[in-house]
Amino acid sequence: MNSHRQTKRALLTSVMALVMCVVMLLGTTFAWFTDTATANVNTIKSGNLDVVLQVKDSNGDWITSNRALTWVKNAAGSGQELLWEPGASYNLEEFRILNNGNLNLKYKVIISGATGDTMLLDVIDFSGKITDENNAVTDLPSVSMNSTTPVILDRALAAGKADTITLNGTMQTSANNTYMKKTVDDITIAVYATQATGEYDSTRNDYDKFAEYPEVTTVQIAAGGAAAVNGAVMDAITTAKAVDPATGKTTPTQIVLPANATVTLDTGVATPAQGLTSDIKITGDKTTTVQLQNNNPGYEGPLSYQDNANLTFQGITIDSSAISGICARGGVVTFIDCTFNGELKKTIASKFVFSGCTFTQPVSQVGYGCKDVVFDDCEFNTDGYGIKIYSEGSTPVNLTVKNCAFKNTNNAAKSAIFLDHIKDGISYNITVDNCTFDGFAAVPTPNDNPHAAREIVTDSFLKTSDGQHIFSYQTGATGGNYHKILTPAQLVVTVK
User: Do residues 110 and 148 touch, judged by C-beta distance below 8 A?
Assistant: First the structure.
């Protein structure tokens, strides 16, 4: 009995001791040998898929242009009208397809859109050939000049490479008088590109073998009165930004404007429903003018608001005189081979691209609400600077200017590229590559500003070897609230 009682007492004591140990351990910090290692992830950079169609200029250099291709007559027949007749054979001037990006691509070419007496095409036999950069030739024995069937399909093109295309037409000798006095207009050559295999990821190089081409709807606007043309354009834009029930998305659309037309685009016309993005391309020739306007401006002034719209304008004249800028937040705005009548001011979008454009007034608030702006192969004939950079907070402002020609028409005391800096916390990365400058020898002076005096930062000048001022910047007057001097880390200007 005593032995049993002693055993119970010993067990109770052990349990109590164990409980006390647990309670004590709750307030105890365990010590272990430990270590930590970290690794940085390298830059994540997406590729650029960019295909362009180029023609030759008067000097024989390839340029990106939307001008109409012409049929070529023998030099001995210079001055004669080019007319088709049975047995006659003409070559279309050559053009080339350039992979202007850094990814492999494949492309298809569709020739369509013909209007007028399209029966004439039935008695002309068209053929062609593709010549690559190694002079290897691929024949195109039969080419349709008005069909949705691709003339070229799934042709691979490596980054930086180009194919030159030549087309020929011969009118059949069997063509009779039925085909006299006929005219065909508005034939359009469209190039569509998508990803191609070749680049390796971590395991393979054929992950994009099923990549699809963009489906683009082309709308040819018929010539007519101003009201009819504008109405047709508005209908095409409305359809393009509407939701396709089959896909749940908007419809990428190219709108081809007739010659000698003036089209007015009011603010908001290209903006799709919330959560969507529209893709609209407007093309024509230099006799066609697109006027941008805002008849109900807000506190920002008459901005052309086109939010969530990817807009491309090609080959036309842009009248920006009635707006204070373009605001396409969430979209990319591209101008190709356009002539600007009027000063383009605020540029607000994910990205702005100007390629092969001509300006007679400056682009004056680059970077206002856009981090990435590119000018390539542009011509500036302006009274003073060609490009003025001004940001209200977007940072960094990445500006690339390459292959551009700047001419200061009245030798005003300005640099070709000019920065107005009055805000803290903004940095600028500016690259100027292979550009020419004329008329910028005078020492730059500040711009007048009715709200706050400005002064030039004299040690910001960058000049060519013959004294042309490429770049300068101004800030608020010394002692004022807008006096902001940039550090070398905040302002990086590279001239190549």
Answer: yes
